[in-house]
Amino acid sequence: MFEEERARAEAHVRQLPGWAARTITTEPAIPVLASPSWRGVDGSPWRVRDKASGESLFVKLMHPDAAFYIDIACAFQAARRASELGIGPRVFLAEENTGVLVMEDLDAGWRTATLERLLDQDIVDRVLAARGRFQESAALSRTSSVFDEIERFHRDARAAKGQLPADADWLLAELRYAGQVMASGRRAPVPSHGDGNVSNIMISETGEIRLVDWDRAGNADPLEDMGSFLAEAFDQEPEARDAFARTQGGFDEAAYNRAWLYGVADDLRWGLIGTLVAARSPRNTLEFHKFASWRLVRCRMAVHSPRFGEALRRV
């Protein structure tokens, strides 16, 4: 499998103008981790480098076992859009039928964001500005809601005999009720990144921001995208509130509560995705179940807290 993927990555790079005759080296680009951070899981990440010039490209080979939660056509459409807007890596090749994406390699001079880096308000504001700019673009080919997806993923996890916690049905019922409460005030769907994972943010030495891994992109309530990011970026609510207020031009409690509830629902969604991949994927060296357990623990903590009921009363 390793050599087969390496050959696929090289073959697609050689399709690019000026790369056919180069002497290249090809190696895994980043460590693939399901836990604690879902990084490199959706597609095999490869770095192809020109031995003479040092120029490199990043190649992503989408995994077949991710097809149930990734719409490749929409994901690649979003990646190309982000490239055009200057908020994502430049895309040189996006082949939907083979699931291959060849992009600018954000290697030298770039670092993956961490929670520590997001203590810097300026960095946070740049990230949210990039997400907001994407939301102003034309509609994508897929529209989704976290509440619809948790229903689907829960059914699928049961059918796959996934290892769900004893209170999974209760969590689903609570979030189903939240979806019903929030239904009347949902905002019009806009193009959204769809995944608040901090490792989807790249920061340059000069403070530039690029958003990567557009696999979960689609049209959604903008507060859903906001809630996903706030849940991942901030351990404490005061900092999340401050970031929300700066982005929104003031603090709207009802809107913030909606974003917070969307973040709770996103934890359940990712817990179910992790459970399903653990049940179905042949890649048994990755800790999918551990990742799912963590997201479900965080969801459970939120639903058990008085904050959950208070937020539902004030949306």
From TrEMBL:
<dbReference type="InterPro" id="IPR011009">
    <property type="entry name" value="Kinase-like_dom_sf"/>
</dbReference>
<dbReference type="InterPro" id="IPR002575">
    <property type="entry name" value="Aminoglycoside_PTrfase"/>
</dbReference>
<dbReference type="Pfam" id="PF01636">
    <property type="entry name" value="APH"/>
</dbReference>
<protein>
    <recommendedName>
        <fullName>Aminoglycoside phosphotransferase domain-containing protein</fullName>
    </recommendedName>
</protein>
<feature type="domain" description="Aminoglycoside phosphotransferase">
    <location>
        <begin position="40"/>
        <end position="255"/>
    </location>
</feature>
